[in-house]
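Example 5.3 — S-adenosylmethionine-diacylgycerolhomoserine-N-methyltransferase
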Amino acid sequence: MFAKIEHGPLMDRVYRHQRHFYDATRKYYLLGRDPMIAGLTPPANGSILEIGCGTGRNLVMAGEAYPTTKLYGIDISNEMLATARQKIVTAALGERTQLAYADAAKFDPSAPFGRAQFDRIFISYAVSMIPQWENVMREAVNHLGVGGELHIVDFGDLRDLPGAAKTALYKWLEWYHVTPRNDLFDVAEAIAAGTGSHVEAKRLYRGFAWISIIRRQS
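Solution (predicted structure tokens):
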């Protein structure tokens, strides 16, 4: 049984109704998700874990792109997990997918999934909503096997967007408890240096979206 998670009730309130139309609206501004999924390229018969799997949209895409992989997803919102389970079943991916309610900052995958390591872990537009996001990244790298990769896509620093557009977007994100992590690349560099990993940074759409990749070498 998972311990009580304080952030979970907040996310349930935010997404209790939004989950029903979340994917239809987010496609217009959660940019970079599909390029990130295309870049996962896990080994044949490998494993993919999504932290903050939300509605299951990304796991379904990953499952279709990599048909021999096993899929795993965790989320802190039971509301989102309910939608994710429906999507997984509709996509006929139930036999190779496992979902669990968990706090990514204190996550032991051995309990719900019976495994400690994964070939690929990805986080899509979730570090900007997780208070302990740096700990989540460190824990994720700890659960990579040798040669495993952590892929993160999220809002960037919006550096090259017009000032008015940047100000309006930041205000809108604040309403939804979203905080872009402008030091994401610096944190990834520090984690990589401490774990013998290689890091890669990609800036997309004039800084609107960032992709950070940490590849574990040992």
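Remark. The first strand starts at residue 47 and ends at 51.
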